[in-house]
């Protein structure tokens, strides 16, 4: 789907993250590892206080993690959250309570932020939905200070972490409807666009592998919070739930933390990409 004035947001993202889906998203999706947040802070040359623009801020999961992190809690001057989904903005406003934070409608290539305002532009779990990488790069460069950085961060189930996670991913990935999911790496095309190469240095990437705490209910909720699962017809969604339950019943490679309470390791990876403005 091409980027147009009429369709600034991907249709599957618009439907899958629309009003009524956001409470589940906020409850089910994981936060971000503290080491990754420290990595972003250490990449910044600027001293506090810092102006942060978070694009695709969603329900505030990353925002809350940032504001609670010891490297960030006292470093933020203002954080301007930009989010195209009205439903997500509503949950964000209810879940983020900090006088330094505001939330407004906007997209990757139209933030409404002043020229040269931001020390950091950060996009968490969202940039794979970008429709025009060249326009987005130009917007990031416009709103960043000369010493500013762009940080992209994603969490994803680690299919290499356990056989049951690979089986989970094998079941849900065919439902993706050819959408530009993070795992496909289509977003890397930004690094070859004219606006990026003229304004940013080559990107630096770092990955963390770790295990979160999981339960059957959490695995099911997390799968259903994915945009392409959220928009499935009821019968198809029920089939996904049935098949995930079967994966968990087989428990292939599942590591129990507390079997009596149904708590186990949930292998994950986090990728951070840092791009410095030239």
UniProtKB/TrEMBL annotation:
Species in which this protein is naturally found: Sparassis crispa
Keyword Cell division: no
Alphabetical UniProt keywords: Methyltransferase, Transferase
The protein's name: S-adenosyl-L-methionine-dependent methyltransferase
Domain Methyltransferase type: 53-151
Origin: domain of life: Eukaryota
Similarity remark: Belongs to the methyltransferase superfamily.
Molecular-function annotations in GO: S-adenosylmethionine-dependent methyltransferase activity
GO biological process: methylation
Signal peptide span: none
InterPro entries: Diverse_substrate_MTase, Methyltransf_11, SAM-dependent_MTases_sf
């Amino acid at each position: 789907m091409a980027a147009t004035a009429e369709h600034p947001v991907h249709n599957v993202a618009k439907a899958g993250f629309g009003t009524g889906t956001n409470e589940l998203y906020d409850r089910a999706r994981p936060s971000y590892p503290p080491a990754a947040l420290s990595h972003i802070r250490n990449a910044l040359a600027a001293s506090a206080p810092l102006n942060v623009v978070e694009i695709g801020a969603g329900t505030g999961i990353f925002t809350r993690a940032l504001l609670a992190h010891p490297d960030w809690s006292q470093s933020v001057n203002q954080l301007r959250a930009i989010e195209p989904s009205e439903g997500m903005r509503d949950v964000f406003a209810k879940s983020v309570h900090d006088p330094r934070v505001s939330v407004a409608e906007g997209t990757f290539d139209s933030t409404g932020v002043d020229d040269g305002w931001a020390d950091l532009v950060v996009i968490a779990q969202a940039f794979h939905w970008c429709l025009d990488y060249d326009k987005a790069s130009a917007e990031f460069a416009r709103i960043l200070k000369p010493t500013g950085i762009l940080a992209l961060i994603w969490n994803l189930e680690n299919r290499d972490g356990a056989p049951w996670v690979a089986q989970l991913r094998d079941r849900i990935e065919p439902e993706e409807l050819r959408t530009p999911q993070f795992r496909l790496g289509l977003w890397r095309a930004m690094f070859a666009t004219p606006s990026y190469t003229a304004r940013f240095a080559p990107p630096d990437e770092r990955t963390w592998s770790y295990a979160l705490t999981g339960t059957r209910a959490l695995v099911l909720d997390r799968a259903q919070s994915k945009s392409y699962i959220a928009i499935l017809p009821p019968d198809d969604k029920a089939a996904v739930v049935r098949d995930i339950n079967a994966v968990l019943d087989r428990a292939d490679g599942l590591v129990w933390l507390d079997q009596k309470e149904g708590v186990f390791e949930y292998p994950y990876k986090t990728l951070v990409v840092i791009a410095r403005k030239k």
